[in-house]
Amino acid sequence: MSNSSTITEHDLIEPIHPGEILMEDFIEGFGITQNKLAVSIGVPPRRINEIVHGKRGITADTAIRLARYFGTSEELWMNLQSNYELRLERRVLRDKVAAITPLQVA
Q1: Which of 12, 31, 37, 73 is at a distance of 20 to 30 A from 4, taking alpha carbons?
Q2: Using CA atoms, how far apart are residues 84 and 15, in angstroms rounded to an integer?
Q3: pTM of the full predicted structure?
Q4: What is the four-CA torsion angle of 43, 51, 79, 11, rounded to 10 degrees?
Q5: pLDDT of 38-47, one tens digit each?
Q6: Domains of the chain and CATH, by start
């Protein structure tokens, strides 16, 4: 079983917050406003605004609502968020993780 945590060139590129994707590909892409999206999915407009400005992550609650509204999977939104967080943490923990000796199984 391999749990590789090798830092790649991809990890060195600035991670894209899921809010940027929400804004560019969905809100602007479909020509709607943040407010229209918020009202349509039943969340406070501030939540959408904070997500698109990278100040808030996408929770499971929001992912379910976005998936329903845009006709996507819930996993799309959760994966965008978890991949973003993993890329950030890999950068922070790079040296500490490199110092960990993997378990050797005989």
Answers
A1: 73
A2: 6
A3: 0.83
A4: -170
A5: 999 999 999 9
A6: 9-90 (1.10.260.40)
